[in-house]
Here is the input.
Amino acid sequence: EVQLQASGGGLVQAGGSLRLSCTASGFRFDRSSIAWFRQAPGKEREEVSCMRTDDGRTYYTDSVKGRFTISSDNARNTVWLQINSLKPEDTAVYYCAADPLPGLCYDDSRIWRGMDYWGKGTLVTVSS
Here is the structure.
C-alpha cells in the first residue's frame, strides 16, 4: 500500500520560514517523481515544485522560484520543501504527490498533476 505523509505545516509570521516533510512508502522511492502542490482557500490546487529522485533534477513554478527549495533523502524516503520569506499569499494546504515514473517531473508543471499517489495535506498559515 502506498502512503504519503506530509507534515511540518503551522502558523508563521510573514518573512519567516518553514520546512515541510513528505515521507513515502509502498513504492520505489529512489526512482520516482515527487511533487508539492498547494491549495489556498477558495482557489484551485496549484503546482509548486517537483523532484526526480533518480537523478536529483528539480523544477519550480515561477511563483515560488527563489524562495522554495525541494530536496530529498532517498535513504529515508523523504522529500522536504524549504519555504523562506513566507508571504500571506503562501497560506494554503500543501500536498505531496508521487509517481513511479521519474520523468513525470518535467518543465511543464501541468504534467505533474497526473501523479498516481497523493497524500493528505499539511496546513501552512502565514500571518501578516
About this structure: Residues 32 and 101 are 5 Å apart (CA to CA). The chain has a mean pLDDT of 96.
